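Predict structure. Input: Prenyltransferase-like, 407 residues.
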Amino acid sequence: MGLGPRAAVLASVVTVALATTPVGAAAQAGAAADDTAAGWLARQLINGEHVESTPTFPDFGLTADVVFALDAAGVASDASGKAAAFLAKPDNVLEYVGDGAAESYAGPLAKLALVAESRGVDPKSFGEVDLITELGELQAPSGRYTDASTQPDQSNAFSQALAVLALHRAGGAPVKAVEFLAGSACQDGGFPIDFDEACVSDVDATAITVQALVAAGSTDAATAALTWLVGKQSAAGGFKANLPGSVDNANSTGLAAQALRAGGKTAEADKAATFLTGLQQGCTAAEAVRGAIFYAPGQSENAVRATSQAIPGILGISYAKVSAVGASNALPTVDCTTPTTTTTTSSAINPVVNPGGNNTNPVPQGGNSPALAATGTYRPSVTWLGVLLLLSGGALVVLARRRPSTR
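Output follows.
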């Protein structure tokens, strides 16, 4: 796929992970865990081009995460290209990032720019929008990127980090933008999600921020953040979201694994990757979920989001480097033709993972999914009652006119 870390990571991480075979691990006969996970993920695309968080409404942010995952894995390039083309439709771009005048959103602009860069498309002409210029117009004198909107500003650490990553790839992030991000660190070295509240370090925010800081060369802040992040890794290799009752999960661990690998924390990144492959569903699982990576053991909800964030973590490929270069169109599956002694508790799990997809009896994508994928759907032409996925457990909150968010 044209990305040097892939071969080394597969040799040192995935092979070890499969040899240890944790509960729920997939039986891989000749295909790497990230490949079969990507093959499953590509097959969840509705009409072969997008995913939905609520029936009939596409989730542009989550569709972008699918593109990143497929490109990182180096397979399903045709599916990734179709998803990127869906995101590049002019109407979809305007709904997601705003009209560039009264409404303009930093996080979605940055995320679409990263999609374009991953696919080798010009981010200055994506769906007839110059994403880089519009993003630059949202930079405040402090260096922070903020939303221009009639509604409350929802920019946060994710939108800032995504902006630094996208602009770094487009030729270089502004010094002030990097300095603002580095300067937002809490006293313990980690980074918060929200800039305007008391500084509380968060695993997900720290992980995406480290990727941006490493890419931009802000090594001191990145080193301190990595030290904090390592201290949050469990004995099993996983990471928890900063939420009451949270458990080690694929989303937080995927983001953390990317950061650890980018920052040179090889042993910790290997351990995180082992945890992630242990959540993959194998031959004793229902056929509909074979290859998927669950959020946590026994939690099938939101498997599309969990899988999309786990794949780059397994490979340890930062969003600064994910690329479709060299990717194939293969759609790998878990090979169940060879008898396996792997044990799993997943066979009794209801395989309903992708609302609006091809699964029967679908359920809402909820669960404890963290930040990166939920950069939301904005529909300025319609006032509607939407469904917001709460991070704390998949509860539904009725809102009016949902805004995109980098949470």
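Residues 1-30, 340-407 have pLDDT under 50 and may be disordered.
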